[in-house]
Predict the 3D structure of the following.
Amino acid sequence: HGACAALALQAPWLATLLALALFQAWALWRAPATWFPEAITIRLARGGSVALGAADLAAPRADAAHIEVSRNADGAWRVRNLSTARPASVQQGRTDVRLAGAPLAGA
């Protein structure tokens, strides 16, 4: 009798937790691709540049203008860090590699 009463008291809490977990899983499944971009496409004319920040890069810890992507007159792409507080880096495996004016491959 005591075990049934305890289970009856826990059932609403368990159902609520299960419902919240299912709702969270559904919300993540339905999240727009812009929240988790696999690639960011930039089109620039030769000699052009654009500053990208937290919103553009889907990187909440980035500055409002964190990096600058530019293209010189010859068509070569470059990336430059604009942030003074946090250097721009990319992850290769589990290692962070600073960009520090690295050349980029254009398509």
In short: Helices lie at 2-30, 54-57. The radius of gyration is 23 Å. The longest helix spans residues 2-30. The beta strands are 49-52, 67-71, 77-81, 89-92, 95-98, 103-104.
